[in-house]
Amino acid sequence: MKDLPFTLDQLKILKAIVSEGSFKSAAETLYISQPAVSLHIQNIERQLNVSLFDRGGRQTKLTKAGSVILSYGSKILSLCEETCRAVEDLRNLHAGTLVIGASQTLGTYLMPRLIGIFRQRYPQVSLQLQVHSTRKIAWSIANGQIDLALVGGEVPEELKSTLEVYSYGEDELALILPKSHPFVKMDTINKEDLYRLRFISLDSQSTIRKVIDKTLEKHYIDTSKFKIEMELNSIEAIKNAVQSGLGASFVSSSAIAKELELGILHWAKIENITIKRNLSILINPFRYKSKATETFLKEMLALFNNKISSRYNK
C-alpha cells in the first residue's frame, strides 16, 4: 500500500492555519513552534507537488489545491473524531462527548439551561455548545462537526434533503416596553397603537425580524411605516435600550424571563395578534449517532419541550 502524503496531525495544522488566519496564530493555538508549522506544510506540498498557500500577498490565502485538501481533510478529521466517539461508546455507554449547536437567541438563553439539567444527570458526558447563525449551524451538522442542533431560522434549501429537520415547538416573540411607558397600564394594545411606538430593532435580515414583519403583514399592519429609532445586532443591547426608555422592541420571550421576573420590562400584548416562530431540531442521519446524542434527544429535549417551552407558550 502506498504511503499517504500527509498525516492527521498535518491536516490539523492546515485547518488551524486557515481558522486562525496565520501560521503564527496556528502555532500558538497548537502549542508548537512556527517553524514546525511551516515544515509540516512544506512536507505536504512536496509529497503532493502542489502549493497550498498563495505566498504572494500578506494574507494567508489558500490555493485551489489547498482548498481541495482542506475540504477533504476536514471530512477526514471529522470521521476520525466520529470513530473515536463510536469506540468510546463501546467502552462506556454513559460517557462520551456531545457537540451541540444552536442559533443565536436559543444558544444564548435556552440551551445553557437545558445543558445544565443534562449535566446534573450525566456529569461524565463532555458537552460543547456552538452558537452561530442557523445557516452556519446547519452546514456544521451536514459536515459532521456538530451532533445535533436546535435552531429558530430557516434551514438552507440545499441541505433539506441531507438533514433530518423536524418540528420541535414554537417560540413566542414578545413586544417589550419600558416600565415607564403609558401603554403599560393597558391590558392589551391595538394594532394602530404600534404606529405610535418608537422601535429598537434587529437588522432587517435577521430571522426574528422577518418572522415579525411577515406575521404583522398578515394582519394588515404596514411595518414599513414603523418608527425605527435604531437597529442593533444584540438582544442584550436591545433589552438595555428598551429598559432605558429609548423605545420598544420585539424579542424572543425566552430572552426576557429574568427581566419579567425582576419587573424591569413590560410584555405588551397586542389584541388578537400572537407572533410565533417555529423551532427545529437538526440531525445528520448519515453520521454516527452516539449514546450521548440519543440520550440528549430522548430525555432532555422531551423534558425541555414539555416543561420549559410551555412556560413561554401560555
TrEMBL record:
The keyword Lipid metabolism does not apply. The keyword Transcription applies. GO terms for molecular function: DNA-binding transcription factor activity; transcription cis-regulatory region binding. Residues 93-302 form the LysR substrate-binding domain. Residues 8-66 form the HTH lysR-type domain. Belongs to the LysR transcriptional regulatory family. InterPro entries: LysR_HTH_N (IPR000847), LysR_subst-bd (IPR005119), WH-like_DNA-bd_sf (IPR036388), WH_DNA-bd_sf (IPR036390). This is Probable RuBisCO transcriptional regulator. Keywords: Chloroplast, DNA-binding, Plastid, Transcription, Transcription regulation. SUPFAM superfamilies: Periplasmic binding protein-like II, Winged helix' DNA-binding domain. Trans-acting transcriptional regulator of RuBisCO genes (rbcL and rbcS) expression. It comes from Galdieria partita.
